[in-house]
Amino acid sequence: PEVHTTQDVVRQAIIPRTQVQSCAYSCIVSEPRMPDKMVTHSWQNLFHDLVAAVIADAVGENSFEMVANLLEHDISILHRLMKQRRTADRVYWICAFAVNQHSAICENRNGDCDSLTGQVHPRCYCSHPKIFSNTPPLMQVTNQSIYCEMNKFPDMMAMVAANNPRFSQVVAVDSRFVLFRRAWCVAELVEADEAGIRQHVQVHSRKVLEENEESLRNLKVEDMAASNPEDVDFILNRISNKSVFNKKLQQLIFDEHGLLSNWHQLDTLHQMQEIGNLLKWIMADGGLGVVWQYWVNRG
């Protein structure tokens, strides 16, 4: 868990598990449901941290350091807290699970390697048709594939938001803040902001935020990366004025009501928040002392 990324899990677990059905993982484990929240994340993020970020959102935290610790040492506390908050059945849309990986990437044409062993991930030999962003037929306006799933994230967000006014976005920020340099992730952030979708940021901890915050001030959309270079071109071509876009991106992150505003507001209320969090977790702990011991060790 300290090494394997979401990409590793997709390659080593999700794709093999869904190979026979050639479908999205979500289609195997549950009936179709409309999501309450969408998670924007980087596949370079540790999968362990992605899970922790989602659970942290479900239990009302702004960071996932505590949750990540409990995932390894006492997951029952997290179960109790989600039950208390009645969020255990909340539906989160995560592309790794909700998109059919056999429609595009399962063959591992890029030769992605395991983060631990360095070995190339196994290739899937399913016969499911592969549909990329440039696979005909194409939309006349955008020149994008009509049937491709991977270029429909903005449309999906708009559709769900139109049918669920409480729909929101969880931004699961990795410890190296790579998310803010991935083209599709940034596109999703801007799309949600423009659509008026509420956004909630999950970072590992205040320390990690402070270590990476300054680097965000130099973000430029021209420097963003994606697994498929054509995706970068597609996103850049949709931006008529990149200087204006970059300025808006900075505002989206740093403004008074921006993505990081909750963290800056906590500066003046930090001690009260810490006390409140400690009480909440101790109650969920059930008197076992696991949370208190973690708090002492962290200090």
Quick overview of this protein structure:
This protein is mostly helical and 299 residues long. 48% of the residues lie in helices and 6% in strands. It has one domain.
List keywords for this structure.
single chain; 299 residues; mainly alpha; four-stranded parallel sheet; 13 helices; 6% strand
Question: Would you mind describing this structure in some detail?
Answer:
The chain has one domain (25-90, 137-298). 48% of the residues lie in helices and 6% in strands. It is built from 13 helices and four strands. The chain has helices spanning 6-17, 25-29, 47-58, 65-73, 75-85, 95-98, 153-163, 183-194, 206-216, 229-237, 242-254, 261-285, 290-298, and strands at residues 37-41, 92-93, 168-172, 198-202. The protein has a four-stranded parallel β-sheet with strand order 2-1-3-4, sandwiched between helices. The longest helix is centred in the last third of the chain and has 25 residues, at 261-285.
